[in-house]
Amino acid sequence: MREGLIPAVLGTVVSASGAAMLYSKYKLAATGILGFGLAHIVLGAIDLVEHR
Predict the structure, then answer these.
(1) Rounded CA gap, 2 and 34, in Å?
(2) pLDDT (tens digit, 9 = 90+) per residue, 9-46?
(3) pLDDT score at 22
(4) Is the distance from CB of 11 to CB of 48 less than 8 angstroms?
(5) Which sequence ranges are marked TM in the entry (predicted)?
(6) What is the pLDDT of residue 28?
(7) Neighbours of 15 (CB within 10 A)
(8) Does pLDDT of 51 surpass 90?
(9) What integer pLDDT is reported at residue 40 of this predicted model?
(10) How many Cα atoms within 13 Å fall on the side-chain side of residue 11?
(11) What is the CA radius of gyration of the chain?
(12) How far lies 36's CA from each of 1, 6, 51, in Å?
């Protein structure tokens, strides 16, 4: 399995859950979860590009 694929997929799942929570009562927590998910996507993408 390619290095960086797992963090990118995990980041996608976490970002989707954070985006779904944005319209709930917990907007601050949802924003933090969305940020962590986006960071995982970026770091996973860097690993994917770096280890071609």
Answers:
(1) 24
(2) 999 999 999 999 999 999 999 999 999 999 999 999 99
(3) 95
(4) no
(5) 28-49
(6) 96
(7) 19
(8) no
(9) 97
(10) 17
(11) 12
(12) 23, 15, 23
Nearest to 32 by CA among 49, 42, 17, 43: 17
| 34 Cβ neighbours under 8 A, 6+ residues apart | 14, 15, 18, 19, 22
With tokens 């979860």, the residue in question is 33
Cα–Cα distances in Å, from 43 out to 5, 12, 20, 33? 10, 12, 22, 15
- Residues in the chain, how many? 52
Q: In the structure encoding, which two tokens stand for residue 38, read together?
A: 């986006």
37: Cα separation from own chain's centroid:
2
Q: What is the amino acid identity at position 46?
A: I
**Block residue for tokens 């799942």:** 13
User: 33: which 2 tokens?
Assistant: 């979860």
